[in-house]
Amino acid sequence: MDKKMNVQVQPQSKMTPDEYFEFDNKSDIRHEFFDGELFAMTGATKNHNLINTSLTVNLVNGITNSTCRVFSNDMRVKIENGYVYPDLAVACSDLEFESNDLDTLTNPIVIVEILSNSTEAFDRGDKFSYYRMIPTLKEYILVSQNKCRVEQFIRKEKKMWSMLYYEDMAQIMKIESVNCELLLSDIYKWVEFNK
Questions:
Q1: Of 34, 75, 125, 187, whose CB is crowded by the most CB atoms within 10 A?
Q2: Could you tell me the residue range of the domain that residue 157 belongs to?
């Protein structure tokens, strides 16, 4: 989704996590939650939806480890100081959830965000720093919806990440942590970039 709106839903006072869950579970739209503040999620563009669908299908078909599961943008993920809805999350082996309702994943191995003009700075900055605090996370992937460009961040050690950069439709991105290869032309299938 084209993630956070720049307008807080409830700016006057901080919410507790319980208040957030009650509000988010009753709402028709999803909200991300950071340090007691609530942020509404906005709708997605055509390119965003096409990329999300292609990524989901190709990840599901490409993962050779049968214990891995792909979750699309309605799976909430726990971060140290809140809750987010990444565009895609992959978890393997024993899936871990924050509670018995199984709607908040706590052990993603791969997270994918599809960049938009309104969220790119956040996805690259603060949100990536939140994701880096998830001990199970091994790869963070940013996908542009405006041009053929994918950036893959791979955890090498606790505080050391490497980055691979792809911008050719013929390139193959290897997602080592889930033993999957994705061709960029498959990720961008049906996507039309503005000239």
A1: 187
A2: 45-187
